[in-house]
Specification:
Distance between the termini: 69 Å
Number of helices: 10
Strand order of the largest sheet: 6-5-4-3-7
Shape: globular
Radius of gyration: 24 Å
CATH class of the largest domain: Mainly Alpha
Oligomer: single chain
Order of helices and strands: HHHHEEHHEEEEEHEHEEHEH
Helix content: 40-55%
Number of domains: 3
CATH architecture of the largest domain: Orthogonal Bundle
Length: 301
Amino acid sequence: MLLITMSVRQTIKRHFKIISLLRTRPMSFEELQDEMSNDPDSIEENLLKSQRTFQRDLQDIESIYGITITSDRSHNRYYIKEDYEDDHSQRLRENFEILNAIRLSKSFGNNLFFEKRKSLGTEHMAGLLHAIQNHLAVSFDYFKFWDESVSSRTVKPIALKEARNRWYLIAVDQETIKNFALDRIKELTITPSKFTPVPYNVHKEFKDSFGIINGTDEEPVKVVLSFTPREGRYVESLPLHHSQELVLRNEKEIRFSYFIRPTYDFRMELLSYGDQVKVLEPAGLKKEVKKQLRQALNNYQ
């Protein structure tokens, strides 16, 4: 059983290594092997394999991850032709690589440093997913930041959503859709009480939202932001929202447009950029940001 587990792990790691290398540039089979031969983890895990195994890997990568790798016969190079890796596969691959880096850091010294933070409540995820898939109500104690109170809830879980490095439970609480941060949930119990599936499309409902705030009066609008070139390049590499589109780029600014609900959490994100961003439109959002900036300045009077 151990040999099978190790073989599966090696195969997954080999797939991820091939994908990562070919995303940097086209390579021949020999170049891929050379890159792996210089990687301590690849050597330790015995990822160097034959051309025959490599061809089988390419077929598996296409069927499992939706990534088509083909060869340019004129230059004897392999390259990624089509990359349809979905969000789930990408996150799985990234988390696998992080876990592998943690394992390596223990072998090669204290070279990996994490931010100090509290638990994200991920210990609840397996139980909540079970309840969601089987339409079982859950009970828990919930700590509220607003007034530091603790309340007991029994809700109908719908989905789990990530927002700004936190995970949230989306659930029906007394006929109202609400969001609960997993790190504030205590004493979680999966009840035997079944409920009728809730007709709520999470992807549709949050498509035009920035973070976790939803169900407000704000309608999605076109937002245009002007960033300084330095900050703009950062935002371009890590978009604020999936609707982000480049509008203008010159020596003075980088401008993006969005179709988004200008909710509280989006306004707070804009304020975090300070003088590195300017709201150009809509006028209402520009006015609200100016108001909050004045209030912030008043705190230093």
